[in-house]
Design brief:
two-stranded antiparallel ribbon, 44% helix, globular, disordered N terminus
Amino acid sequence: MAQEYEIFYTFCESSIRCGEVAVDLRGYFKPGEIKRWEEIYGRDPERRKFRKLINGRSVVVSIIGYRRVGKSVFAYAYGEVESLNPIPLKVHSGWDADKVFDKLNKKIESIYGSKTEGWNVGGGVSLGISGSASKSTSTTKAPDIDEVCKEKCYIILDEVQRLKSEDLREVVNDFYKRFESTATIVLTGSSVYKIRNLGIARKIDWFTLYPFDEMKAREFIEKGFKQNGMLLDADDISTIYHGVGGTPGLIIDVAKLVILRNYDIEDAVEHVYEDFVSGDGESIIQDLDEIINQHPTVDKKRFVEFLLDRRTNEFDRNERELLEDLKIFGVVKGGIVDDPCLRRILSKWGGVE
């Protein structure tokens, strides 16, 4: 079982609810989508590949991957560590193209605008005798998006699947027209793989994030728990990996329950997996259905059986094309699915449980 190693306490900071013992997670398990690169584990190979893909060019890139694999975190941390001054914007339901540009300008204002405060002090105040003081504020006007992007900018549009196809086309085409030599636009979101087929004038490159393989997942679990004051033995690490696989978001969810809410590890794994299957897992299955619908001649059950049995060499041409699409989507890497959680999701999808 897990051995308590060290407890960290920080009082009255942003990472704690004052008056309570529980603190937010730290290090690799730190919550939120805006992290420094040193808070990201195991993505240096992906960083090198992403840098090579961008390679100083103005590009539109989709970071593809299934839910909870870490697309948004990777996109921002990459921009931060490469000193690209990332401008992140999460799209909300109901937005159109005009709303995106309006929100981007407001985001730029919050990043690049500056406000200074000072006090106009009446005579004698500094001497401790009767006087008066009044507060004054001066604000430096922030540049708009055209000014920021005229040289170089790195914009992250997250959850772009919430935009209608025509609005997404307008946003990307407008960016390309105005900033074709300076702007790198990163598109992320659970269904961002679909934008390859929207007929957008600008070529969109794609970059897939996969879950950690078993070795990296085990290291991530071990090091992340240690950063948060717990040493896990090999059995604990195996329980977590075989329960939720190498998906970073699911591992962090387990850690939240174990570290912050004192769950038993087995109970935490079961709780996180059940929540995933009934929530994001169902969304992944819907995405898989949309993908296979592009391959109407493929028998889903046969495909999944052969995939999980490592018999992809027996696939026909249509099955191989579907396999390539699933690689892009991120649930298959190199024709093999070893991740325990993904294997169960695929089994459920294919009806081979």
